[in-house]
Design goal:
Layout (H helix, E strand, L loop, with lengths): L7 H24 L1 H45 L10 H14 L5 H15 L3 H14 L7 H15 L2 H12 L7 H14 L3 H14 L6 H7 L1
Length: 226
């Protein structure tokens, strides 16, 4: 079958159509030149703002971490008997500096937990609980730190004498199958059930612990408490 011969007019038609479209595009841009300038300026501002924000947060994180390290090493150096309690106020001041001056940094969340711990050591349990709860809200998405905060909260409630609230808090840890602190939580929960005169619940938790954690170093302890 013979191919249909393409005329010169048809050959020129394609480029003509392309030129027509190109001209339309150029004319459209010219007609809306001012609008395109504003759009380009807006995009530039957004990009610069994003880059500036990233740089600022990186800088805040670095300085916050440095301030936290200063407070942390001071606390470590003063853990000797007779020095630790005396320097609690200085430790609190250093950790509060991280929170106040670098509140947007990741280190500020850790500093908040440290201040809560100091309040616990000072037996200011209500203040410690408030701080731990604030810390819990700020790290709500952290699988690593949330269980630690809940353990600390349970300890605060127990020290305050609110055993039922401590049990409620520990149950959050125990009910989470993927919680890395579940073993510790179960043993603490069994102990608190006994303090609350709920011996059947304590026995239930201990038996469950023995069944689930055959290789645990705490297994002899669990068996001894039965």
């Amino acid at each position: 079958m013979a191919k249909k011969k393409i005329t010169r007019k048809e050959l020129l038609k394609g480029p003509d159509e392309f030129m027509t479209l190109s001209e339309k595009a150029v004319n459209f841009v010219r007609a809306h030149q001012l609008r395109f300038k504003y759009l380009g300026l807006a995009l530039t501002i957004i990009i610069v703002a994003c880059l500036a924000g990233i740089t600022y947060l990186r800088n805040v994180n670095e300085k916050g971490q440095q301030a936290y390290d200063t407070a942390y090493y001071f606390a470590i150096e003063n853990m000797k008997p007779g020095l630790y309690t005396e320097n609690l106020q200085k430790q609190e001041e250093l950790f509060k500096k991280v929170i106040d001056e670098y509140g947007m940094s990741k280190a500020a969340h850790l500093a908040l937990a440290q201040v809560a711990h100091i309040k616990f050591l000072e037996k200011k349990y209500d203040e410690a609980i408030d701080l731990y709860q604030e810390c819990s809200r700020k790290i709500s998405g952290s699988i690593e730190y949330k269980p630690m905060v809940n353990l600390a909260l349970a300890a605060c409630y127990e020290a305050k004498g609110d055993i039922k609230k401590a049990i409620e808090t520990l149950n959050i840890i125990v009910e989470d199958q993927n919680n890395p602190f579940k073993e510790t939580g179960m043993l603490s929960l069994a102990r608190l059930y006994k303090l609350d005169n709920r011996h059947e619940k304590a026995t239930e938790i201990l038996n469950k612990f023995i069944e689930e954690y055959q290789d645990s170093p705490f297994l002899p302890m669990a068996k001894a408490r039965l």
